[in-house]
């Protein structure tokens, strides 16, 4: 039985897909290890909040995320209380401060 070059190429491609597909699927697989909460307070009097946090594992990497309004989970970069404060409570003040517009902190 003779196999055409097209069929041989297609068979090789499908074999590669079957072998590589499980690895590609597991590369982005997140596992939620823990849930908790943290307290965040504005440095500029804009309020305070108790927000949800979670510990996520992707492969061998573990990191914390904070829940933002609307259900979006964002990385905390080590300090979830500070991340929430910077992203929501004091966003405008911190943005202006970064540009050098606010001097009285």
Structural description of this entry:
39% of the residues lie in helices and 31% in strands. The protein has 105 residues and is α+β, with helices and mostly antiparallel strands. The protein has a domain of 68 residues. The chain has a 4-stranded antiparallel beta sheet with strand order 1-2-3-4. It is elongated and about 40 Å long. About 11% of the residues have low confidence.
Please tag this protein with its features.
105 residues; four-stranded antiparallel sheet; 3 helices; 31% strand; elongated
**Spatial strand sequence of the major β-sheet:** 1-2-3-4
Rg (C-alpha, Å):
23 Å
Element string (H = helix, E = strand): HEEEEHH
Q: How many individual β-strands?
A: 4
Structural class by sheet pairing and helices? alpha+beta
Quickly count the helices. 3
- Average predicted local confidence, pLDDT: 78
SS strand fraction: 25-35%
**Straight-line distance between termini:** 81 Å
Binned, the helix content reads: 25-40%
């Amino acid at each position: 039985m003779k196999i055409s070059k097209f069929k041989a190429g297609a068979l090789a491609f499908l074999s590669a897909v079957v072998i590589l597909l499980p690895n590609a699927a597991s590369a982005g697989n997140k596992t939620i290890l823990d849930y908790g909460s943290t307290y965040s307070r504005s440095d500029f009097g804009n309020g305070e909040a108790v927000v949800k946090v979670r510990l996520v594992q992707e492969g061998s990497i573990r990191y914390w995320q904070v829940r933002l309004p609307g259900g979006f989970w964002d990385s905390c970069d080590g300090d979830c209380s500070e991340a929430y404060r910077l992203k929501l409570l004091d966003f405008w003040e911190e943005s202006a401060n970064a540009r050098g517009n606010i001097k009285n902190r």
